[in-house]
Specification:
The complex is a heterodimer of chains A (302) and B (315). By secondary structure, chain A is mostly helical. Helix content of chain A is 65%, strand content 2%. In chain A, a hairpin with a 5-residue loop joins strand 1 and strand 2. With 315 residues, chain B is mainly alpha-helical. Chain B starts with a helix and ends in an 8-residue tail after the last helix. The chains are: A mainly alpha (302), B mainly alpha (315).
Chain lengths: 302, 315
């Protein structure tokens, strides 16, 4: 429990030095773009773009069933074929972009709102011992896997997009607490933080003026990784039938539906599968790339 | 050493106790009355009150909590709303299944992570090392249940090599048990293996920069020899820590995988009790999963102390 891991999918960053070079003078520089960052940004942008397009246009209405033309293979009329109810798979896939993006966004925002003040407080009250208790509490919350929380909340309040977002946001918050705390401890040991204290500035001033700007880049990286994890978890929840209820299309439930037709039309698994993996990979790469690009100091904190 | 172990045990017990309060509060302070939900709309107030009394719902919340804690301690874990029987035995059975699955998944993950992580670190900067690193990056982006569905499509539907789902307990035949275990264990282990592989790679790359590695090379060891003799052991220390997080991840992954392969573990039990709105069962399963997560973390903490001599002194 003493580990300061920011979640699966992250490397310590020290191994991936592709983004940092050294100029002839030996001064470390940071290249503006590195390969993971570029690829990740393009992949994420594509998903966001498709999500936006889906608001105004899909090839067919993703909710219209057509039992006469069910389980068809790809054709000019139905690019990716049709599902077990004759719905157009391409349209469902495109419309299904919205739920994971929305859940990811709100879940990450919830994690940030809960985790950042908590992490800063834990770091600032370390001397008094209160910080230790805050971290113990964080360990308790961390013992509740996000997916488990989401299942409990779904059991209590009934499955909905809302329960998924809240549960995944709370479940991921401990990671944000750890990252924020580690970063804050670093900032607090710097001269400017000490100077602020010596000048009689209160802890709130230091937190807003010095800590937040300095931990921002770490949080951006964590948010990107958290987004990837939320998309994964949302897919699992939808697959289990505990996410956004039908008929709203979502990739996870497309997989659940497709499982019944494995023997007839296995392609129906491939499309949503690729969509999930693509989105998660995009955010993971974006996180890795941002880590190299934004924050050479992250190494010391992590 | 002993003091460190005792301290960790104490923290574990305290965390578990607080977690039990959280589980209880999460599910006890709910809108709605389980007694009324069970009896339906036609029930008279007297009937509802009688059932409330029978279920212990008319007592104060602290009293209910203490009662539930007693049920946890005795292993009955409460009386199910739907079957009216203690949920303990059922949860215990399901837990055995899930733990077997997690164990098998962990073995697969380790078998994947060790060679690929080593190779990716040794061949870093070359084409094959980069390809391996990219492959693990893709690997961690595939949810385990999707890996499971794809494995079923190929090995069960197309090739008919293995069953597409179901479960045979080891006591009912080892052959059938293994045949049913292979695909779910692979589905679980592939993804976790990719994550572990990345951690191992970056830990090894860190170790390679250490002074003692340079000394080993200077003494005439090849890169491989130095890695085997000095590097791997040192790199494993952070990897062991990550394994704790990974085991918890495997447990949650197993919950979903069980649905793909129709395996009667904790995940299937939880889903069923959620569908039945059987909150006593939900409470029991959630508590058991949380206890398992904490126990796995404790175990890793203790292993960590064993692996790293520096931690043996109590801090």
């Amino acid at each position: 429990m003493s580990a300061t891991t920011s979640g699966p999918g992250t490397t310590s960053g020290r191994g991936t030095t592709s983004g940092r070079g050294t100029t002839s003078g030996g001064r470390p520089t940071t290249r503006r773009w590195n390969a993971p960052l570029l690829v990740g940004a393009v992949m994420v942008a594509a998903v966001v773009l498709i999500g936006l397009v889906s608001l105004v246009w899909t090839p067919h209405d993703p909710l219209v069933t057509d039992p006469l033309h069910r389980l068809q293979g790809p054709s000019p009329a139905h690019w990716l074929g049709t599902d077990g109810l004759g719905r157009d798979a391409a349209s469902m896939l495109i419309a299904g972009t919205r739920v994971p993006l929305l859940v990811g966004l709100v879940a990450v925002l919830i994690s940030l709102v809960l985790g950042v003040p908590f992490g800063i407080a834990a770091a600032m009250t370390r001397q008094g011992g209160a910080g230790l208790w805050l971290m113990r509490w964080n360990d308790v919350v961390q013992a509740f896997p996000a997916l488990l929380l989401a299942m409990v909340l779904a059991a209590v309040r009934g499955p909905s997009t809302w329960t998924a977002m809240v549960a995944l946001g709370i479940g991921a918050a401990p990671g944000f607490v750890r990252v924020t705390r580690a970063g804050t401890l670093q900032v607090l040991s710097r001269e400017y933080a000490l100077a602020a204290r010596a000048a009689g500035r209160g802890p709130l001033y230091t937190a807003v003026r010095h800590v937040l700007p300095n931990v921002r880049s770490m949080l951006i990286v964590q948010a990107s990784v958290g987004f990837a994890l939320a998309v994964l978890a949302e897919a699992a929840l939808s697959y289990l039938g505990l996410g956004t209820p039908p008929p709203t299309p979502s990739w996870g439930r497309m997989l659940q539906d497709a499982q019944a037709f494995l023997y007839v039309q296995p392609l129906l698994i491939v499309w949503p599968g690729v969509a999930i993996a693509w989105t998660v990979l995009g955010f993971n790469l974006l996180g890795d790339g941002l880590r190299d690009r934004l924050d050479p100091r992250l190494e010391a904190a992590a | 050493m002993l003091l460190t172990v005792l301290r960790r045990l104490g923290v574990f017990a305290l965390t578990a106790l607080v977690a039990s309060v959280v589980v209880f509060v999460l599910l006890a302070v709910l809108p709605g009355d389980p007694a009324r939900a069970q009896l339906g709309l036609d029930a008279t107030p007297d009937q509802v009150a009688a059932l409330r009394h029978q279920l212990g719902l008319d007592r104060s919340l602290p009293a209910q909590y203490v009662h539930w804690l007693g049920q946890l301690a005795t292993g009955s874990l409460g009386i199910s709303y739907s079957t009216r029987a203690p949920v303990g035995p059922e949860v215990l059975n399901a837990m055995q299944v899930s733990l077997l699955l997690v164990l098998a998944g962990m073995v697969v993950a380790a078998l994947i992570a060790l060679p690929t992580g080593l190779l990716a670190a040794v061949r870093q900067g070359r084409a094959d090392g980069a390809a391996l690193s990219a492959a693990t990056q893709v690997g961690i982006s595939v949810p385990s249940f999707l890996a499971g569905l794809l494995l079923v499509t190929v090995f069960a539907v197309r090739l008919h090599w293995l069953p597409s789902g179901g479960w045979v307990a080891p006591v009912d035949g080892v052959g059938g048990f293994l045949r049913h275990l292979v695909l779910p264990a692979l589905a679980l282990g592939l993804v976790r293996g990719a994550i572990l592989s990345r951690y191992l790679r970056s830990a090894l790359l860190d170790v390679q920069r250490e002074d003692f590695m340079r000394t080993a090379r200077a003494k005439g060891m090849t890169r491989w020899q130095a890695l085997r003799r000095h590097g791997l052991r040192n790199a494993l220390v952070p990897v062991v820590t990550v394994t704790g997080v990974e085991l918890a991840g495997l447990l949650v992954g197993a919950v979903v995988i069980e649905t793909v392969f129709v395996i009667p573990g904790l995940g299937s039990l939880l889903l069923r009790s959620v569908a039945n709105r059987d909150l006593v069962e939900v409470q029991a399963v959630v508590m058991v999963v949380v206890l398992l997560v904490l126990a796995l973390n404790l175990l890793v903490d203790l292993v960590y102390v064993l692996v790293d001599p520096r931690l043996r002194r109590a801090r």
